[in-house]
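Quick bug: RNase H type-1 domain-containing protein output formatted oddly.
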Amino acid sequence: MKPLARTSSSNDLTVFCNTYAAWRSDLMAAWMGWILTDRHGQEISRATASQLNVTSACMAEALAIREALINASTQHITHICLRTDSQVLARAITARRRPTELYGILSDIDSLTSSPFSPFTECSVVFIPRARNGPTDLLAKSCLANFIMGLRP
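Here's what came back:
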């Protein structure tokens, strides 16, 4: 099993992936966004997804990371640094702790990043302050806003 790094990589091949999830407890749903950039900060791609039956903000963020990893693997990215504004989740992933609520999602993330069959040669997860995650925050929240606007008569 490959180790999961705790710090960002300086490898020229590293792609940085900022993730964010907007969660609505009243709807039990999450809207997720992620932006992939190169080491110079140039955007490679961005994407969004939504998920129903999401029971917490932390679960929403874990789902965003899983979706971002799946998306990055389809783009044949081999070196990735995941950046999340959830300290709790960053610690859980790097320490390979799996709270009951997140067990399945964190197991998926672990398989995607650390198994012998992982598409990633190198993967790290780091915490970033929410203030440094603005574009990804806006992406996820605009996905939520579009959904809400679609509900209005």
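Actually, after a second look the formatting is fine. The mean pLDDT is 90. Closing.
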